[in-house]
Specification:
The chain is α/β, with parallel strands linked by helices and 336 residues long. The protein has one domain: Vaccinia Virus protein VP39 (Rossmann fold, 3-Layer(aba) Sandwich). It has nine helices and nine strands. The strands form two sheets. It has a seven-stranded mixed beta sheet with strand order 5-4-3-6-7-9-8. Strands 1-2 form a two-stranded antiparallel ribbon. Mean pLDDT is 90; it is low at 1-12 and 27-43. Bound molecules: S-adenosylmethionine.
């Protein structure tokens, strides 16, 4: 099997371009990171909560079948673990856009709502909406946060009540038409308002060929390949800058972050990020593959479990130096 090609690199304003990550050959420091791994307000029709259960996992009911990852507690825990990882990637910032005194904010595909809740805490003057297909957000939240169930790929109705800031994180493999989504963001922002996408290039790569022919590589070829075949965008990260410019955004800025898979880097910051990445993806291998491969490729649950466990084992192997590119891209709707 051929090694997955290194991802496309965008040009322009991306300024974080580590091209080589030094490997920690001692493998001894793994244990030091062992511990690292360790108001809902919408009026809900009962059908929204009438979840779909399949292969031991729970899936959303509203627009059933349109999102292929579960919405159960295990997945919520994984997303919350991811939130801590993203904070570490961004130096504990929730966003990088130069947003000033936002009054109206929306988080698209908010998941457990953890970003929206943190943002509302940081900006008590702002009214923050979190929107998702699944009503899995907590009910005890800051008074300036509201959650709603909606499909962000449908037509929006916010033009009469536009936002100062629109945020979307980790919608790779969730959204089919990012260009349309970005156009709707533009139309629903106030003049001078900001949009920020934080997203992945959903294929790993290695600088030294160590990913070639591994179970980890096979996992992404099978799973991400299936998502792409059925129409989901799994590699939005490197395309976001261009998409924002096409939609008419100005002052577009893009940054790329390299995230290692596991504790193999020598650099302590990258080693720590790699540990957090490993923790959240280990819980995600099964979640990411089950619906895609059983619904579209006729795999059995057991076959998926084996694929996931091989990917997990390879992810722990310090001789396999997989990395992923993560992008933060923001832009402004022109003032006039
Ligand atoms: C991978 S999770 C990311 C959650 C959150 N943004 C975060 O970073 O923790 C993707 C989320 O997008 C939601 N989603 C997927 N398709 C959607 C759609 N068409 N409309 C609204 N939400 C959607 C899913 O239900 C899921 O909660």
């Amino acid at each position: 099997m051929a090694e997955t090609p290194a991802p496309e690199q965008t040009t322009g304003t991306i300024d974080n371009t580590l091209d080589n990550v030094e490997v920690d050959t001692s493998f001894e420091s793994d244990s030091a990171y062992g511990d690292e791994l360790s108001s809902y307000t919408a009026s809900l029709a009962s059908s929204v909560l009438d979840y779909r259960y399949e292969n031991g996992r729970r899936y959303h009911k509203f627009r059933e079948g349109s999102y292929l990852l579960p919405n159960d507690e295990a997945e919520s825990d994984r997303l919350d673990l991811g939130h801590e990882m993203y904070l570490q990637i961004l130096g504990r910032k929730l966003y990088l856009a130069p947003v000033k005194n936002p009054q109206r904010v929306i988080d698209l595909g908010t998941g457990t709502g953890i970003w929206a809740i943190d943002f509302a805490d940081e900006h008590p003057q702002a009214e923050v909406l979190g929107c998702d297909l699944s009503p899995i957000q907590p009910s005890l939240v800051p008074p300036n946060v509201k959650f709603l169930v909606d499909d962000i790929e449908s037509d929006w109705a916010y033009e009469g009540n536009p936002f100062d800031f629109i945020h979307a994180r980790y919608l790779a493999a969730a959204i089919k038409d990012f260009r349309r989504l970005i156009r709707q963001c533009y139309q629903s922002l106030k003049p001078g308002g900001w949009v920020e996408f934080q997203d992945w290039d959903g294929f790993p790569y290695s600088a030294d060929g160590s990913l070639k022919d591994t179970g980890l590589e096979r996992y992404f070829n099978e799973v991400t390949g299936t998502f792409q075949e059925v129409g989901y965008e799994c590699r939005p990260g490197p395309k976001l800058e261009q998409w924002l410019k096409e939609a008419g955004f100005v002052n577009v800025h893009a940054e790329k972050f390299i995230i290692p898979h596991g504790v193999w880097p020598k650099d302590r910051h990258l080693k720590k990020l790699g540990a957090w990445f490993q923790a959240q993806i280990e819980a995600g291998f099964e979640a990411g593959a089950l619906a895609a491969l059983t619904r579209f490729k006729d795999w059995s649950k057991e076959e998926v479990m084996i694929l996931a466990s091989q990917a997990r084992a390879d992810g722990r192997n310090p001789k396999i130096h997989a990395m992923y590119n993560f992008y933060v891209v923001y832009g402004q709707r022109p003032e006039k």
